[in-house]
User: What shape does this take?
Amino acid sequence: MSNLAVLPILIPLIAAITLVFFNGNVTVSRVLTRLFSLVSLGAALYIAWHAMENGTIILETGDWAAPYGIILVVDRLAALLIVTTNLVAAACAFYAPHAGLGKKEYYYFYPFFFFLITGVSGAFITGDIFNLFVFFEVLLMASYALIVLGGDKVQLRESIKYLLINLFSSMLFVTCIAFLYAVVGTLNMAHIAERVQEVDQQGILTTVGILFFFVFATKAALFPLYYWLPHSYIQPNPVISALFGALLTKVGIYSILRVFSLIFVHRLDITHELFIWIAILSMIFGVIGALSTNNIKLIIAYNIIPAIGFIIMGIGVFNQDALSGSVYYLVHDMIIKAALFLIVGAIAYVAGTSDLRKMGGLIHYYPALGWLLFIAAFVLAGIPPFSGFIGKLQLLQGAFGDGEIILAITALITSLLILYSIMKIFIRGFWGEKDETAGFGTKSVKGMIAPIAFLLALSVLLGVGAEFFYPIVASVAQSLLDPQIYIDSVLKE
Amino acid sequence: MEIITSILAGILFATAIYNILQKQFLRIIIGTTLLTHGAHIFIFTSGRLKTGQPPVLTEGVSDYTDPLPQALILTSIVISFGVTSLLLVLAYRTSEENNTDNMEELRGNEHE
Assistant: This one.
């Protein structure tokens, strides 16, 4: 029992409520946002350190003993993801004032920003499946508000689709929870896992598992449920896109990782075999989407889908190497997707368009931005020594070790195509003669560069410092492979 | 009793899906409302339906009504009410701005 576990939810919540009162004053809002994001990051780092040193942090809310009340569980996986979430949030908080939000900054942008972080952190640390649904709704509510902020024509059109698909999958989520509750009679995830183990996951439970997978796959944008994502993610301001791209789909994939490593792990031949095929199809279709367009924002948005494919690939293969690869890739992808969305946001801002055919020669005006994009492309594609390489290496080792040759080869080809899709932005946008008539170079990128460079530096650090990070990730994978560790830490306190 | 409510939930789901697949905003929203009702009735059924039994309050009660599904429904109702009202406002604004409430005309391929 330790109250530490509630801090990642509490600090952003307090920040959000405080900022509601300072909505009229942008200067104060900006200062407070930076301050709170740093405090939250500090708290997350301390909690992560505590969880790594002293084991899982458990909080039984309201002192209700484990299977009855809602419990918060910060294990190593949750700790790792909370730290990453807060790093991304801090970068976005520093980028936001320079992102050209304009009047939108007055539309309660900062409070919703922190409500989103509250929901995301809550989803990572809750140990109760209904509470997971509630935190999903918290983050979705904030995301509805953020995606429609400003409310122009196109934005409204895409928001309504985003809201409808999420409302539908949320209701499916509740129904799945009702199914599960009717079968096992409990909502505590550790307790569910224990009971599923007792009956050896009979047919009905596998069915419920697959239903859960479809709910989370909709949130995570896996094939064939990704069609809603690209167009709705590019409509709002780049900061909001970065938050969505980095955090929202990752909450979906985290839920799959948690539920299918803890609860539904007794019929791997059905569930995890399905994941492998979905991983292959997600990678192929995602990258085809990325190659098919000339809109730089859309290229990055489509790149979310193969990345989720890589993560689900590790969950499908389900061995030590592949799972550590998945966890590594999850952390890496949160950071790099945020960085990429911020970079293309900056490019679209300075070029005045997000159409590749209308830009060129930007390197003469914005060399720093160009080289950041260049590095980001290498990080994303997994060129050593950057972080994408370590994650993919682990994933491929796992896949080859398990004899999943088709999967591994698809992953390799997809990586190359991903590199090409990002390089296209670099070649078409930054190369070329200086064009005086286009009117580039008038807008300043001051203030945008630092947060992007910070995220990329983290990413490089993750790759170069793999020696330090790898044992942590490996221990996370180990605890995912042995659900008894989680069950014992929750129920046998 | 459980069979009847399960069938009712099923019918609500079916009509909801039919309505969600329509093109008009208002029909889609009615569809989502029916969907939430179906889900709520289903949660209610998941805890077994019993009449006249107390929830667990004292020791020694062996036959009781499960209070948990009711707590779940309450939470779920609040959430779906909030989302539905937001959806109504959003649909109104969208149809005002785009001059249409037909989903077919809101595909938006021109912004590729």
Remarks:
- The CA atoms of residues 188 and 293 of chain A lie 44 Å apart.
- The interface with chain B takes residues 130, 134, 137, 141, 144, 148, 151-154, 156-161, 163-164, 167-168, 170-172, 174-175, 177-179, 181-182, 187, 231, 293-295, 298 of chain A (CB under 8 Å).
